[in-house]
UniProtKB/TrEMBL annotation, chain A:
Transmembrane segments: none annotated. It comes from Pedobacter xixiisoli. The keyword Transcription regulation applies. This is RNA polymerase sigma factor, sigma-70 family. NCBIfam families: sigma70-ECF (TIGR02937). The keyword Signal does not apply. GO terms for molecular function: DNA binding; sigma factor activity. Residues 29-87, 131-179 form the RNA polymerase sigma-70 region domain. One of its GO terms (biological process) is DNA-templated transcription initiation. Pfam families: Sigma70_r2 (PF04542), Sigma70_r4 (PF04545).
UniProtKB/TrEMBL annotation, chain B:
This is FecR family protein. The chain crosses the membrane at residues 98-117. The keyword Phosphoprotein does not apply. It comes from Pedobacter xixiisoli. It comes from the Bacteria. One of its GO terms (molecular function) is sigma factor antagonist activity. Residues 283-343 form the Protein FecR C-terminal domain. Keywords: Membrane, Transmembrane, Transmembrane helix. The keyword Transmembrane helix applies. Pfam families: FecR (PF04773), FecR_C (PF16344).
Amino acid sequence: METSRTTSKEMELWNLFRNGDKTAYAYFIHTYSNSLFNYGYRIYTDHDFVKDCVQEVFIELWNRRNSINGTNSIKWYLFKSVRLRIFREAPKWNKNLPLEEDYQFAVEFNIEHQLIVDLETQELSSRIKSVLNRLPGRQREIMYLRFYENLNFDEISTIMQISKQSVHNLLQKAYHNFRKDWSYLLAIYFLPIQQ
Amino acid sequence: MNDYTNYEVNDFIYDDFFITWVRERTPESIDFWDKWLLEHPEQQKNIAIAFNIVSGITVNLPKTKLSNEEIASMSAEIALRTSELQNKPRLKIYKQSWTKVAAILLLFISAGLWVYIVKNETTTGIYQQISIEKNLNQAENNSNKPKIVRLSDGSLAILQPGSTLTFPNVFNDKQRVVQLSGEAFFEIAHNKSKPFLVQTKEITTKVLGTSFSVEAFDDDEYAKVSVTTGRVSVSMNKDINQQKSVFLLPNEELTFQQHNTSFKKKQLHSPLPLSTPVIEKTFSFHNAPLAEIIEKLEMAYGVEIQYDKHMYGNMKITASLSDRPLDEKVKLICKAINADCSFPDGMIIIEKEHQ
């Protein structure tokens, strides 16, 4: 699995790209088109529209290659641009399908263990899984970027244009949901013992 | 670094640095957590559980991704737009762009060659001029049905049987030039800064954007241009550098006579099938069955659209399709009925969505 931190190979390609190298540019297009599309599609489920957004982001990237600061990760830069564009262009694209503030981020979390784990871990896993899958859109988005795209919270807060504190606050909310379930879980655990 | 001494399993699960350790195994996170675990044996159990869970979290995605063809065509479009126009603003081929096109223009040109011209005669200056451009494409319609040709700028041509259209893979910076022998109908993407020129043997028709149709068979003695909406200018190729061009308005028809090299303009009695008032009336549908819409499209454009009548014929659609080019119209319909459309080898096919 690739990491969010730009590898030295990507850094090299990034510098080439900024000097107008089309091969490096093509590398970024091929490497990131589908992850960008997949991400955008979770926010706004319109295939053609999201594809168009990804395309425009790459064109913009080329046109602005000289003015982009030496960023340490091209990945979050692209994700951020796609997200911004979707929110900006969606109202123009389809007036009947506005992008709601509480958009659904359509993704399903699962917990798979490669090793055999004890019953306690299994129980916790299934509980955590159901909590993850009931999170509201923005929190799902954070978890998606963290666990699927391996972006860290700093990068996620830049992509979603919220403060790092807000990322924590959003997770805090998730955590509260979790707490409720947690106590329920503990109750189940202790029930047989009390009998 | 956070104080992890009082963390429970669920706290670890949402901790960025913990996740980094489990999922990314960066050297500094390994250093830290290995050491921390040794110092806090009381947290070993919580961490073991949290580790198991965090390492097991996966994301199931519904099957949505760009196909290889889509990525290829996207790359082509990007290559085109980044090489040709660089920093210039450009018309986006969004749905809305077509509605913003102010002057929808429909043009019908029919031009011809002298019957008695020798077949292998040398090419004229214009023919040579266009052939200098690299990456020329040639679409030839040897079938008995109209064929769709999509151009790189989003414009569209419907090529009639027996016709040939020559066009560059990528238009140059100054103008969009295509060359026609035979008959075709064009819907041109609006672009003020890049006029669209249709060159036929004897005359050249210039439009600034939108849709039109050209017919120029090599064995007719006349050329004909009729405009449905918008405005075009027509000039004889021998006069191309002089300012002798004739302007045409909707429902006007221009005939070029080969024998005395003259233009003759006349007003048409009934509006052309794709003129603005007609099309606005014809292509606004309220709860209309798909079969009816397809039939109207086929009539207006003179094309055949393949689809499963049993499956889709009775589906009801409400839409206004008047301001879109044909391929966009078809795409919109497909979207409404959740079908796929494709344009293989100049045909239009609507079929069940691929999964």
